[in-house]
Structure formats: C-alpha cells, structure tokens
Amino acid sequence: MIDRTRSAEAFKKLIGKETWDSPSVTDRYGVYRSLTNHQYCLAHLIREFKGYGERDGPDKEIGHGIERELRLACSKHRDYRKGKIALAQRNRYLGHRKRKVQFWLEDGIANGSDQLSRLCESLLDNFDKLWTFTKMGEMEPTNNTAERDLRKLVIWRKKSYGTRSQRGKRFVERITTVSQTLRKHGQNVLSFIQKAIERFYYKSHPPFVSEAMGF
C-alpha cells in the first residue's frame, strides 16, 4: 500500500485489526510501538551501532560492543535455521549474548554521548523487543526479506518521484504486489500480465495469482 504519510492511521489501514497481534519485525518507528508480538529489526540496530563505533571516545567501544553481540546473535540464529545446532544450544548461546547486550546498553547510558545514552535507555526500556524472535518459532530477528522485496519499488520511487493520483497509486501497489509474489514462486511475470490484458479485452474473468502458482 502506498500512502502519503507514515502515520498511525495509514499503518492501521494497511494491516487491519485482524493482523494487529501477528508476529511483526520492524524498525523502531513510533507507529509500530503498539504491536503485540513485536521484534525490533536487529539489522537496523547493527547498522546504527556500527555508526557509533566509527566515532571517537566512549561511543566507539560501546558501539563496537553492541554491534558485535547483535551480529553474533543473528549468526547463531542462522545456524539454528540451517539445522547446524539444536534449539536448546541456540537458546543458551543467545542467553549469553542477551546479558552482554544488556551490559553494553547500561554502559552506554552511563558513559556514552547524550545521543547514544538516549538510544541505549530506549532499548533497555523495550529490551524484550530485541529478543521476541527467541519465543516465536517462525519469527526472524531481522526484516531483511521485506527490505529486499521493497527495494525495487523504493528505487523506482526515487527515480520517478512517485505518483500523483489515486489511480497511479493503486496501479503501482497492485503491479508490484503481483510481480513480487510471482517472482518469489519462480513464475513468469510478463506472461501473467499478458494473460490479464488478453482476458480484459475478451471480457473474460481475469487470472488469479494463485492459479499461476498452481494453487
């Protein structure tokens, strides 16, 4: 869905009441705070703390420390997903990483710059949202998959300056949704669109994406 703003109203319109409690992995944008099963994207935090690690003074060590621990947590979770380690082994390892992250966040509050201190305090206040993925079987610690799916649309928007009409928004929403869904299932996008246009001119029922995927 394309909207002019990232407001709470637009977000609620996008996800609907029925999915409000669904597992969600997002950045720390304020609109998402009221989600129930909410995981902060660790990839976003890794990039953020990497930036602090490139500064001088106490921020450098603290930034490096938190970045390292979060990277290790994501790496060990990937090992679990690939079947290299058992769930119990992953959980023990993440328990150590969790304590280390908490230590560095407390250090950041006490010794970091004002900006870093505020960030660390905010993360400690919502500390469980860094580890929701450890409690929910299908949840990942990052939203990298969604970021990759949206990348082409983001690049298109920057090059074209977006849309100016509701009709244009609906077209972009639908064509992007259809094309990305078909690509994910290894289907030919151009063939599907051709079929949709042919059926439109023959005034017959349009094809369903599920049909193209064999569902």
Task: Describe the secondary-structure layout.
Layout: H1 8-15, E1 24-26, E2 38-40, H2 42-53, H3 58-81, H4 87-111, H5 114-125, H6 144-160, H7 166-184, H8 189-201, H9 209-212
Parallel strand pairs: 1-2
Helix pairs in contact: 2-3, 3-4, 4-5
Structural commentary:
This protein has 215 residues and is an all-alpha fold. It has two domains: 8-134, no CATH class; 163-212, no CATH class. It has nine helices and two strands; from the N terminus they run αββαααααααα. Strands 1-2 form a two-stranded parallel ribbon. α2 packs antiparallel against α3 (58-81) and α4 packs across α5. It is elongated and about 70 Å long. The mean pLDDT is 89.
Largest sheet: 2 strands, parallel
Report the count of strand segments. Answer: 2
Beta-strand share of residues = under 5%
- Could you tell me the radius of gyration in angstroms? 21 Å
Mean pLDDT: 89
List the defining traits of the structure above.
mainly alpha, 62% helix, elongated, single chain, two-stranded parallel ribbon, 215 residues
How would you sum up this structure in a few lines?
The protein is mainly alpha-helical and 215 residues long. It contains nine helices and two strands; from the N terminus they run H-E-E-H-H-H-H-H-H-H-H.
